[in-house]
Give the backbone structure.
Amino acid sequence: MDSNVVKGKWMQLKGEAKKQWGQLTDDDLDVIAGEKDKLIGKLQERYGHTKDDAETEYRNWEQSIR
């Protein structure tokens, strides 16, 4: 799924993101608003991931929601 599609469908995908990353708060998800870079930044912040690890997690999640 293209990151633009994720952004466009964010309201539906927020629940999937919450299931995947339970440490993200509802406020985090509202701020992220489907933007890939913001989500990757929050994964780094909440989980202590490197940027590469966070990007890998995002790509894996993006594949799983197709």
User: Anything to note?
Assistant: Residues 19 and 52 are 21 Å apart (CA to CA). The chain has a mean pLDDT of 93.
